[in-house]
């Protein structure tokens, strides 16, 4: 077919006329990346004893849990028959990376994240179970699991167990999101995906996005409550965001330089795509707005003495742009890898509907849902430790 179909240039095989993976598959690695990154930030305090980020510890755990609960939803909507997903739990298939997701997901959710949150909040849950009345009393009593011992010795054991769980959770978080990059990187027939750096790039971009998300939520949460932001915590979190972002950017540039130097038979096709169909999402969205701009803003705070108000504004803007850039990166990988023919001669376009099953509206609802779950979790389990609250002036 030569120019007979709108949006198609060159020759396309019949089975390449329609993209198989939509925006929902873009959201899937994006959300799991936020989970992994938030948990890595939490591990800084629990495992590596970075006390400066302690105010974000509980918030990072709750954020990871809220987004992890919603993480499988894009895949469920994409399946069309979500009830079939239970078959992979009943008939394990260890040779399939996609089929192993269910086991990695349940391990990370039940054996790592839920246990660590329960150990962290156990004194608070016991106190509320003994003080509250009505349905709240029943709810918190259920969360105690029959354990009301909050003696110093018991809390010391809780801390040790939680630290061990976090240590186990770090490679689990790497596995949760690294395997997503492995799935794309192992598709040899697609030169846009087939690179051994794909799992590593996905992993570090996940850490970057998770830290940026928690930083932004911490700022918004403190503002809504009228609580003074811990600037030492904010500066340290932003510093780790900056360092991780530099590593992620270096890895992506290494992959780009390797592709340019190798310049195989697919290079012209990929180069044409970047300059045309992916120019807005890759050059503008991912590189300039989502990478260079936040890196420049974060670098500015490292070399120039700025007021607290200015730093908070810069951190918020940098975090928001970072989230946009990481989403653009996921978009360019998932959608971009399907826009060209296996013959490297034809191109197609992706047209996203609005109220369809895999359209814009379901995608927006999927992104809002974890924030609603997080709001419920915050109401039940406050992320800031109990004690005197220092209010913002005015």
Considering the chains and any ligands shown, give keywords for the structure.
394 residues, mainly alpha, Formate dehydrogenase/DMSO reductase fold, 13 helices, 68% helix
Structural commentary:
This protein is mostly helical and 394 residues long. Helices cover 68% and strands 0% of the residues. The protein has helices at 23-46, 57-70, 73-79, 87-90, 101-131, 134-144, 152-185, 198-225, 231-262, 267-275, 279-303, 308-334, 360-380. Helix 1 packs across helix 8 (198-225) and helix 2 packs across helix 13 (360-380). The longest helix is centred in the middle third of the chain and has 34 residues, at 152-185. It is globular. Mean pLDDT is 87; it is low at 1-8.
Strands, total number: 0
CATH architecture of the domain at 20-260 and 354-380: Up-down Bundle
CATH fold title of the domain at 20-260 and 354-380: Formate dehydrogenase/DMSO reductase fold
Low-confidence residue ranges: 1-8
Order of helices and strands: HHHHHHHHHHHHH
- What composes the largest sheet? none
**Beta strand %:** under 5%
Helix content: 55-70%
Rg from Cα? 23 Å
The coarse overall form would be globular
Number of helices: 13
Class from secondary-structure proportions: mainly alpha
Q: What is the CATH domain class of the domain at 20-260 and 354-380?
A: Mainly Alpha
Amino-to-carboxy terminus distance:
67 Å
Mean pLDDT: 87
């Amino acid at each position: 077919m030569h120019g007979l179909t709108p949006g198609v240039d060159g020759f396309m095989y019949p089975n390449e006329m329609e993209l198989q993976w939509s925006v929902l598959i873009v959201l899937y690695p994006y959300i799991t990346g936020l989970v992994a990154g938030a948990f890595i930030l939490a591990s800084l305090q629990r495992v590596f004893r970075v006390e400066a980020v302690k105010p974000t510890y509980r918030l990072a755990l709750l954020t990871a849990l809220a987004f992890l609960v919603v993480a499988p939803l894009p895949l469920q909507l994409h399946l069309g028959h979500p009830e079939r997903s239970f078959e992979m739990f009943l008939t394990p298939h260890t040779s399939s990376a996609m089929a192993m997701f269910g086991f990695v997901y349940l391990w990370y959710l039940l054996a790592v994240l839920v246990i660590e949150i329960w150990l962290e909040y156990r004194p608070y849950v016991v106190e509320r179970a003994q003080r509250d009345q009505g349905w709240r009393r029943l709810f918190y009593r259920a969360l105690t699991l029959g354990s009301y011992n909050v003696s110093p010795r018991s809390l010391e054991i809780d801390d040790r167990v939680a630290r061990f769980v976090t240590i186990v959770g770090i490679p689990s978080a790497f596995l949760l999101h690294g395997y997503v990059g492995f799935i794309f990187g192992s598709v040899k027939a697609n030169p846009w995906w087939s690179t051994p750096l794909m799992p590593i790039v996905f992993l570090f971009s996940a850490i970057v996005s998770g830290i940026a998300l928690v930083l932004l939520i911490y700022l918004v949460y403190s503002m809504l409550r009228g609580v003074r932001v811990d600037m030492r915590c904010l500066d340290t979190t932003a510093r780790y965001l900056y360092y991780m972002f530099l590593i992620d950017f270096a890895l992506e540039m290494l992959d780009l330089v390797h592709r340019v130097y190798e310049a195989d038979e697919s290079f012209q096709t990929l180069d044409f795509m970047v300059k045309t169909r992916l120019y807005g999402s890759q050059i503008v969205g991912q590189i300039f707005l989502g990478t260079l701009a936040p890196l420049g803003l974060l670098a500015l705070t490292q070399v120039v003495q700025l007021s607290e108000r200015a730093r908070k504004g810069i951190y918020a803007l940098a975090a928001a742009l970072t989230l946009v850039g990481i989403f653009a990166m996921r978009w360019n990988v998932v959608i971009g890898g399907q826009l060209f023919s296996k013959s490297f001669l034809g191109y197609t376009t992706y047209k996203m509907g609005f109220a369809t099953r895999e359209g814009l509206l379901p995608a927006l609802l999927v992104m809002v849902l974890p924030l609603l779950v997080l709001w419920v979790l915050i109401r039940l389990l406050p992320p800031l430790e109990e004690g005197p609250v220092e209010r913002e002036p005015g």
